[in-house]
Amino acid sequence: MSTRNTIRAGRSTKQAVWLLPGILLLVVLLAMLVRSGTTRNDSPAPAVAAAVPSVVVPSAEITAVPSAVVTASAPGSTPVPVDPVRTEAEVTAIATNHLALMATAAEGSGLTPVPAKLESVAATRWSDVSAVEPSLADVPAESGDASRVIWVARGEGTFLVTRTGLSGKGPWIGETGYLLIDDETGEIVGMGTP
Amino acid sequence: MALARSLTVAFLAAMLAAPIVVTVAAPRVALATHISDPACPNHDQLAYAEHIPHVNADGASSQWRATTLVAPGYAGGGFSAQVLWVGTDGYFASDVWVETGVTKGFGGQNVFKFYSAHGDVRPNPDIYVEVTYGPTPVVGSTNIYRAYSISPTPGGTPRYQTRVTAGGTNYLRDWLGHVADTRHYASGFEVRYGGQQCSHRVDATYFYNNTFRRASDGININPNNGVLTDASTQGTIGWCVNPTTHRAWVHSQTSGDVCP
Q1: Cβ contact B108–A105 (<8 Å)
Q2: In angstroms, what separates the C-alpha of B167 from chain A's closest C-alpha?
Q3: pLDDT tens for each residue of A133-146
Q4: H or E, element range at A21
Q5: Which of A39, A47, A56, B84 is most deeply packed, by most CB within 10 A?
């Protein structure tokens, strides 16, 4: 083997040393991309083509069927286009039923329930939830479920807190608060007080 | 060639930047248990190991395998949960805290979910918020639960961020109104019966890597001290290596007595 060929062979070996980890990294990155796409499909984002402003439905009483659709009015907020699959009436009914259920549960725990009275119902994305409920932080965009649409139903009622953790307190009631309802499933996905 | 070299350097840099966990060695001690009360208790159940960081900390994390949780009292606000509680603002986790974990029973519904919550007893009335997040947990899967102080942008509102990583995806919930430091944190189980006494169940699981994040450098520290607190009468808590690797269960027929 000539000197020139020996140098070439050495270069080839060096190139192989550098190329091998690079190729491995590319394979890992491709695998991560594929996996990321698959996982995101577990939390499908509702369609957004038909841009509808976030809706806030004033409701004087919990039994009233909301009739008006207005834009979220949190100070400094920008209306967020969402296309909820549920109606305000459906969400109001879910919130009504839940507060009634919690009132019954509270009585069972020796607590005095609070009459329910919804003040507003609004739809938004988790990533923009502070526009509707300023006490909540927007969910970071990198969170796997940031684009899900939720409803925020705020008012008075029996906001029963049972997850009292290390506080040593028994169940207690917040007299004002809000419920968070997933637009796709209709589940109660959150509760806050006051 | 240049691309391969760049990618290799990036790969090595990423490896070097991986989270560092410092574990303080501790002597192995015997498993601690106590005999369950044969009578059905008319109260809720709580068992956990708690830790007080010896230096300034700004968060904590824990890791465990989700096991079967049973909560037939869900309609009455009942639940069975495995939880990480993290104190904030220099308070104990009993007073000002964020928490995250896995729960059976949420919002009066028969659901199995990851959840996040925060509370603050300083204002009147108290603040309390809870949400579910992420996908449906898988029994038998191990997940990492974290809660750290963050400032998302320069001048942004300080907050604590809770996080669970499931199926390779991160799920996040931030809680406003919380700042460092973390003076106290704990992990274990909480059961509220919701009117269905004696029927809830938490199968045993090991809580481990119960680290706090040292504020000065962001390194996760696994302490070798802590206190086991067992407020339950039909469950129990025990430890294997030390209180940082502990286990807990209630009403479970699968508690076992073998350390990992």
Answers
A1: yes
A2: 7
A3: 999 999 999 999 99
A4: helix A3-40
A5: B84
